[in-house]
Each structure stands twice: as C-alpha cells, then as structure tokens.
Amino acid sequence: MPDVEEKVPLKDPGNAESGPCKPETSGRTPDDRSSPKDHPSRLIDKVNDVSQLSEKIGMNRDFHTEEKVLPPSSLEGKVKETMHNAFWDHLKEQLLATPPDFSCALELLKEIKEILLSLLLPRQNRLRSEIEEALDVNLLGRAAEQGALNVPHVSKYILNTMTLLCAPVRDEAVQKLETISDPVRLLRGIFQVLGLMKMDMVNYTIQSLQPQLQEHNIQCERARFQELLNKQPSLLDHTTRWLTQAATDLATPPPPCPDTPDSSSATCLPAGEAAISPEPLSPKMVLSQGFLNLLLWDGEDEAFPETLRTDRARLQELEAQLHRLTVLASVLLVANSFSGSVLFGSPQFVDKLKRTTKVLLEEFGSRPEEEAMLTVSEQVTQEIHQSLKNMGLAPLSSDNTASLIGQLQNIAKKENCVRSVIDQRIHLFLKCCLILGVQRSLLDLPGGLTLIEAELAELGQKFANLTQHNQQVFGPYYTEILKTLIPPAQVLETEMESL
C-alpha cells in the first residue's frame, strides 16, 4: 500500500468535475454529561472531556489524517496482508473460471461506485448521472449473467473518472494504473488509490473548516469553563498562583549564562532587536514566562493551573521533546569541539550523526539516562573515527578519544556545563517564539543551536500553537488576574485588551 502524502492541495474546487469530497469523520467525540462534584479536580475532569478531534483540528493548522500503515513484520500487518491476498486470489479464480464468476467483481464495482459518488460535490449533477448510468448495478449484473461483463472496459471508465476527481499528486498513480492489463491487479490498484483520494479529500475539507472549528472550540471551551467557574468560584486559584510566580521570576535577575568556546552570544533575538528585559512587566511577558515554567513543572498535579489541565499531556510531550533536543545539541556541540570543522562542514556527516543520536535518545524513557548516554558516546565516537578514516584524516588520539567519551557521558548529568548552557538557550529561544514569533526567532539562533534548527522550529511552532490557543480561550480570565499583578499603566492597556 503506498504511503499517504500529507497536506495535499486539491484541484480547483470551482471546476465542475473536481473538488473536495463529502468528508468522512473518524474517531468519536466523548461528551461526559455526568454531574461533577464540588471538588475542583472533579470539575476539571468535565473540561477534559471536550471533543479531542475537534480540539486538535482547531489548535493545529497543519492537522491532517493519514493512512495507518502497519509494519510488515507485525502480527497485525501479516494477518491483514494474508487476508487481502486471499481475497484477491479468490477473485482471480472466479474470473478465470469457465464460465467466469462475476459475483465478487460486481460487489467491488458497487463499492467503487459508492466511493466515486461520495467524492462529488452536490452541484456535480451531470457527472453523478454519468456514474450512476455507467456503473448501474442492475445492468452490470445482467451483463454478468450473460457472461458479457467487460471488466477492463468498466475499469477504464473508472480510471477516467478518477482522473477528473483526484488531487494533482495522485495523477501519476492513476496513470500507472492505466498500464495494468491484469483485471485483478487493476481492481486492487484502483481500491488503493481510491483510499488515498478519500484521505486527500478529507484533509482538504478539514483544512477548509479549520478557522471555523478553531473559533467554535474557543467559544465552547470558554463557555464550559465559565459554567464550572460559576459553580466553583475558587477554580482559578492555581492559575493565579502560577501567574504570580511567573511575575516574580521576571522581577528576579536571571543568573549569568556561561559562555562556550563556540559562541559568546546567548540571545536568540534578530539582529538589531533589544534583548528581552524583565522591566517593565507586561502581560505578554508574564504569560510567556508562565508557559515556559510549565515545561519545567515539578509541583503537585493538583496545583497545576486550572486553565491548562486539558493541555497537560501535550505540555509533557513538548517537555520530553525539549529534553531530547537539549541532549542532542549538547552531543553535537561536544563532538564538534573534538572533530573540528572538516567533519562538521559536511552536511552528510552531520545528518547521519543526528539520525544516529536521535534513535539512541529515544531509549531515554525505557532505560536510565546514564546507561543510554554510554551507548550514545560509544556510537558517536565510532562515527567520528570512521568518518575521519574515510576522509583520509588523522584519527583521534587515545587521550582525545577517552576525553570525548567522558564528556559525552557527562551530558547525562543535569548540572553538566554544556547541557546547562544549551538548556538555557533553548528556553530563551522558546520565549522568543512566544514574544516575537517562530520565524523571527530563527533569524539569529544562539550558538550551539544552529545544527538543530529544523527540530527547534518544529518544537517552537507546536509550543506557540498551544499557548496561542490557550490564550484565545482563557484570555479574559488572564487579563483580570494580570491587572492585580502588574502596576496600572496606560501603555499596557492595549496589550491587556489583546489578551
């Protein structure tokens, strides 16, 4: 089964013979209507029951569905492949029989007809009539009874119709089907491509509805939270303490960031921008600091801000991703200091080293970090040695090799100097993303982060999307809390209202 491509642009919906399909919905929408108790945690549980699919679509502008591809080596994958092969082998036996048995073929053509009709817009009446006539089940059945069902001829019509309805990215796949003469292989290929076309249409429809779904989610989440707040006036206590702590953190001068040999700059602001200053406090800065604090949350679950309970799992995922990026950047920085500019001037070497390290870092959740870093240090050292040898360069001395392994292993310690610097700089980058935007923050990355620019962009966009959606939902509540934390100033009124 071919892979499903993401974010597929459809042909112009204005074309009378092409356009987005009637979307298929997947997943269920849980909506627990049980009466909550007075305890705040029980009240919050009701907020957590917001439609997960609708929320994902509303929050993520790049949301899309994709085909579930089972690993061929998995039991489920093997069972599915065996069943599919058995069905198509059975169809082949029927068509080769004397006289041919078209019972399975007719069922397939009936299903193909239903799929094609589901891909039409309401206004495509002429094409609808053509499909109804060309794939009339009764007429096809009578032809089959007489042994005159021309499967290749019918398949040719189906391919022509698919060409009209498919996204441009599927044109090549449909054209390849036209070269298949075996009727069984052709029908099997038609079903595979039709499955991809349905996915394309669903994703296009989701993308078209995203702005409306986002606004709908914002209003619904806010209304549900307000309903709970009316029943439990203390529901914002933890949120208030969270923002208060963020304001306190901003008022406290940050510790100096030690320099590393690669760079003396620790700012992620674009050239010409002033460094972010904790004075004077502003709502945006307090909220940004608060969101950053959540990535380092070490308090009790019950004390987590009420307005972010539904985002807790996503924040934990981002925290894990941030942790892996910190270690990855630290490994690359240490490796660079030993191997020099020759190796790290090769994009192929850097990409290979990143891929290797990423795979090994996935083990952090299943084994002790010190043990995982031992494997990382050995593998990275081996990659450097092999690359130096391939380039005809002098290998690392035994002392340098031992020092490299030792420094890589020390990255497992949170107090490690390199790791601490990288961690501070990634947090500063994320703060810039919230205040300046992701693209502006990428213009001048702090030293040591340029090799993970793509990964940082992904992390920063996810973090920015999450916080932006949360502010849109709970902005009115944050505004009232921040008015008590920030001294009144006319210059802040506009920003207050923007929340």
Automatic annotation (TrEMBL):
<dbReference type="Pfam" id="PF05794">
    <property type="entry name" value="Tcp11"/>
</dbReference>
<dbReference type="InterPro" id="IPR008862">
    <property type="entry name" value="Tcp11"/>
</dbReference>
<feature type="compositionally biased region" description="Basic and acidic residues">
    <location>
        <begin position="1"/>
        <end position="10"/>
    </location>
</feature>
<dbReference type="GO" id="GO:0036126">
    <property type="term" value="C:sperm flagellum"/>
</dbReference>
<feature type="compositionally biased region" description="Basic and acidic residues">
    <location>
        <begin position="29"/>
        <end position="48"/>
    </location>
</feature>
<feature type="region of interest" description="Disordered">
    <location>
        <begin position="1"/>
        <end position="50"/>
    </location>
</feature>
<protein>
    <submittedName>
        <fullName>T-complex 11</fullName>
    </submittedName>
</protein>
<comment type="similarity">
    <text>Belongs to the TCP11 family.</text>
</comment>
<dbReference type="GO" id="GO:0007281">
    <property type="term" value="P:germ cell development"/>
</dbReference>
<dbReference type="GO" id="GO:0001669">
    <property type="term" value="C:acrosomal vesicle"/>
</dbReference>
